[in-house]
Amino acid sequence: MADNIVLIGFMAVGKGRTARELSRQTGRFAVDCDDLIESLVKMNIADIFATHGELYFRALEGRVARWLAECVSATIVSTGGGFAAVADLGRIGTIVHLHSEFDAIIAAIRGHPRARQKIKKRPLLQDLDQARRLYDRRRQLYRQVADLQIDVTGRPVSLVAAEIIERTGLKVPLPVSER
């Protein structure tokens, strides 16, 4: 298994923010699966869904997962909300499920200065009743595939990252002044 940390969880739970903070604290590279998909097909996620549909998008996730497993190591991987369903996810690295209750996720999005953009860029978050049902369905999948569960509700991203570092045994480089 590659020495990657793979962050999974429902959309907007903070996987990207956490990946960036883990990168900052550990010096590892961070990659975002949605960014990889967008650069691969030269379209944004909303346009991929609108033009080609969800099944096509899921196939792209599978392609990215295979590439990550074969070519990437010592990296923090931020995934999309449905990425946990890709085959052999554990081949990529240690799977960390970031979780929060649905209402807390929605409240955090609504409280964000760019709330409209955050909702608009997530095709599966357009209908909140449908999104809640999706959350309920995916919650069990996340728990099944994860090596670690981390509750992020109301916690600063720096503390979430510190918990991941502690629980996974990631090495944190010494500050330059202590080397």
Explain this structure to me?
Helix 1 (15-26) crosses helix 8 (157-168) and helix 3 packs across helix 4 (54-71). This protein is an alpha/beta fold. The model has no long low-confidence stretch (mean pLDDT 89). The chain is 51% helix and 12% strand. The chain has eight helices and five strands. The chain has one domain: P-loop containing nucleotide triphosphate hydrolases (Rossmann fold, 3-Layer(aba) Sandwich). The longest helix is centred in the middle third of the chain and has 18 residues, at 54-71. A five-stranded parallel β-sheet has the order 2-3-1-4-5, with helices on both faces. The two termini are 30 Å apart. Monomer.
How are the SSEs placed, and which strands pair?
Blueprint: E1 5-8, H1 15-26, E2 29-32, H2 33-41, H3 45-52, H4 54-71, E3 75-78, E4 94-99, H5 102-110, H6 115-120, H7 128-145, E5 148-151, H8 157-168
Parallel strand pairs: 1-3, 1-4, 2-3, 4-5
Helix pairs in contact: 1-8, 2-4, 3-4
